[in-house]
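Minutes, project check-in
Item: structure for the 257-residue chain
Input as provided by the requester:
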Amino acid sequence: DVPDEEQRDYQTAAWAAQELPKLAAREKPFFLAVGFHLPHVPIYASKRWFDLYPLDSLQLPETVTVDRDDLPEIAKQLTLNPTAPRHSWMVESGEWKHAVRAYLAANSFVDHMVGMLLKSLANSDAADNTIVVLWSDHGFHLGEKLRWAKRTLWEETTRVPLIFAGPGIATDQLCPRPVGLIDVFPTLLDLTSLPPRADLEGKGLQPLLKNPKAKWNRPTICTFGPNNHSLRGERYRYTRYADGSEELYDHMNDPNE
């Protein structure tokens, strides 16, 4: 039970919250990048955040005991993460609920720190002309597909939060279109009226930021290891592995893949 103020991520947020008004007071445009370690392992957070999620009412992810039986062998080998616990161990040792609780607690802690930064921005001179982007580098399995951590081409690893806010961006709306983190940089170039770059593979997301339901005929691709690719559209995920093995998931009828 270590106080929030003594933890690394809190100190990062507190520093950024102090720096932001100083940057906003300058005449020049500014860029501030703030990175949090959580909810990466080790998943530690103060007791107050754990108390938000009582064990007796905690909901675990949906799983199927035979979920991996129809996977190609290369998929099973690729997703063998030597540093992550086996799902069977998590269940047998009674740690599944505790780990999920810790992940939820850590996310709530990070949400609180994001709020610290937004409050600092709201009280600054730049509240009305600053673009905020919130994202994560990868997802995390908490037992889904009988896996833990990352290192897969499935939804739980490859899907991340991606939130844009600021002038000219639609508010309080969800966008179902598939995009990638590779699109963040060209989008920022567009939003800040900086010169476009011809050497970028990503695509600016301004049409979707103005209208989240705008037409978008571009799927997104994720790669893990040589020649293992997963293509994600609005409805389907298609994965092709280096040996030619394939997986196809219909998210309309099978959102848990």
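Outcome recorded: Helices lie at 8-24, 47-50, 73-78, 87-92, 96-122, 155-158, 184-191, 206-210.
No further action items on this chain.
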